[in-house]
């Protein structure tokens, strides 16, 4: 554990420097706001255009869509950042082999690198949600937020995403080519299957089955329930309104444990295989 | 008088009258264009899995946006509007990451210095990259458009296909001109410019109205966003494809948008040429052409 924490600290510090040293911290925070803010605004405009023409038959899904889009930016960034960190350290910086030959924990190091990239988003996402509440009239109020639920869901969700990202990093470590696509491909696919933008009931039945098997679907549902008082209103037909909040939390706990059980041995196997096959200093001109 | 010997037979031969003149600048330009377009076109066929990822990722993202309208029971023309925007995102991403960023990637991999040594212009190299990139990107956009239209049953009401094709190509010429202009920045700047490119991606999706009619943002924002040629290109294409629905969302008339796009195409081309020369000169002075990992 001590090795893990030390490696995490080093990875985080290096990642933070690598990510942010091209500008000053204030500008970096503003820059980090661009993606979640733009995605939230796109969804807002899409729905407002429709409302303006009176063409809306369904309920107002703006809070559902806005919260899902903004929160999902953390998922996309974390999934992509760890896989990309492997690629960057291995091929661009040529230093992954040095991590591997030290008694340091590569697992902790990659966690640090991943968290460094999304750390500013831990500020950007609340700021964007606040912007949504104040300017776009998204019904998120400090008085109605379920704070204990929010805390539990954030912690569990981050664990799930980080373990998932670790799996992708392990896969990236083992494959020779196309590694740059791994994070983007998975986060792109999950965008469709997690109900980040729309209720999963819109999907065909077979796709709904996949969506219900993805833990992040429950994480986004949990975030909506914590932030938005009307999240379980049946009018939105989310497909998860029947699920009690305690069951939802148990699903998240189970998913976090399952992801840990998959990712930890997989990472060990990936490191071993990378050493065996000489992949730690490979250069594919990413 | 010097004697010229054949290198194979050592027999004296007549000097070649063409020797020393070499190919014309025009020939070099087009050879460079073909030389840079070739690997991008052939590369698409050689690595089919990349083609899958290139198509699969934007297709999934576009489907997500269309499903938002599906979720609230919007008319099919609105889904078509998003689909057209989603298909065109492929071109914006290609311009950003394979045009604007290309000289940065080449600098990182040590190719940039070879470009500088070659007796050709940087415009020729970038034109080749643009044409090669256009090939793969057009396949991607076409698959998104055709696949999405079939899945969601979207019908188009285009009456003037000639104008539609004209606007499409005019938008792309102007867009890739902008890409050339942006690429000149990477001759001078390093990773900071990379971050700026990343910052242009989603915000341009928003201000250029890739997923909704740009007029909804108001005249001031829409006018500012018109610097990105796809803003006007998309608006004109949507007007031609969905004339009934776009009556209330028309930003400018198709003719006006075509004229502005033609102006942008010419302007970006000229400014890009000037900027590339200036930036190359500055980079040589500052010794940044071979710099890596900035």
From TrEMBL, chain A:
The chain crosses the membrane at residues 26-49, 61-87, 118-136, 148-176, 188-207, 248-266. Its main location: membrane. Residues 27-270 form the ABC transmembrane type-2 domain. Keywords: Cell membrane, Membrane, Transmembrane, Transmembrane helix, Transport. It is found in: Cell membrane; Membrane. It is a multi-pass membrane protein. It holds the Pfam family ABC2_membrane. It comes from the Bacteria. Belongs to the ABC-2 integral membrane protein family. This is Transport permease protein. It comes from Herpetosiphon gulosus.
UniProtKB/TrEMBL annotation, chain B:
The chain crosses the membrane at residues 48-69, 81-105, 125-154, 161-190, 210-230, 251-276. Belongs to the ABC-2 integral membrane protein family. It is found in: Cell membrane; Membrane. The keyword Transport applies. PANTHER family: DOXORUBICIN RESISTANCE ABC TRANSPORTER PERMEASE PROTEIN DRRC-RELATED. This is Transport permease protein. Residues 49-279 form the ABC transmembrane type-2 domain. It is a multi-pass membrane protein. InterPro entries: ABC-2_transporter, ABC2_TM, ABC2_TM_bact-type, ABC_2_transport. Keywords: Cell membrane, Membrane, Transmembrane, Transmembrane helix, Transport.
